[in-house]
Specification:
alpha/beta; Spore Coat Polysaccharide Biosynthesis Protein SpsA, Chain A; eight-stranded mixed β-sheet
Length: about 240
């Protein structure tokens, strides 16, 4: 299936997710419109993520791959994906299938009705105790030291209009934490509740150390480091 001018883009950062990528694409194909590009941004994985993505690409030309030369974190990978997206609406989601593709049609429906930002809100989650604990610590300090409140139930799963995507790319030097920016920007939003499932395979790449570093960046204690160095692009 070839997509020349996609109506929608899905941006998916991936780091060492080789075990779940095939299943993710199968699930996505159940719910996304035909004219949709799926952009995977491989954040310099050390497993077989890149080779698995290339195998998937051979069977599905709507899948596009950007392989980064250095591991720079989820935020940076999302920005790279946004920069290369072509759809009128852009959906960002994790690669571990904890963000359910089943609610994508509802997100697109909200965009068609005029909402420029669609934010899914977790009403429950199935994660390890360590991940839940580190998340609570992260948001405690983020909200303690930040002028604006960030809802911890809103993650890196959202739909934004292409104009918002372009603004984020253009302001990437000032935007420290995309999910917080989307909550705080003065644009009407639509919220959708969902249940966040457990990982289907593999282990989370968000260690406590990475969460700590992200928190320091988010509150301005550490400089923002962006990396646009791309090792390989397939399909774009």
């Amino acid at each position: 299936m070839t997509v020349s001018k996609p109506d929608y883009s899905i941006v998916i950062p991936a780091y060492n997710e080789s075990k779940v990528l095939g299943l993710l694409v199968v699930e996505l194909e159940k719910y996304i419109p035909k004219n949709t590009e799926i952009i995977f941004v491989d954040d310099c994985s050390t497993d077989k993520t890149l080779s698995v993505l290339k195998q998937i690409r051979r069977k599905n030309e709507s899948v596009k791959i950007i392989s980064l030369a250095k591991n720079s974190g989820q935020e940076n990978a999302i920005l790279v994906g946004l920069k290369h997206s072509l759809g009128g609406a852009v959906i960002v989601m994790d690669s571990d299938l904890q963000d359910p593709p089943a609610i994508i049609p509802k997100m697109i429906e909200g965009w068609k009705k005029g909402s420029k930002i669609i934010l899914p809100v977790r009403k429950s989650r199935q994660d390890s105790r360590l991940k839940i604990f580190s998340g609570k610590v992260f948001y405690f300090f983020l909200n303690l030291l930040s002028k604006n409140y960030s809802d911890p139930r809103i993650g890196s799963f959202f739909l934004i209009d292409k104009k918002i995507a372009r603004q984020i790319v253009e302001k990437s030097g000032q935007i420290r934490f995309i999910r917080s920016y989307l909550q705080q920007v003065k644009i009407p939003k639509t919220y959708i509740e969902f249940k966040r499932d457990a990982r289907k395979a593999g282990k989370t790449g968000y260690t406590f150390g990475k969460m700590t570093n992200l928190a320091l960046v988010a509150i301005g204690a550490t400089k923002i480091k962006r990396n646009n160095e791309i090792k390989e692009i397939v399909g774009i």
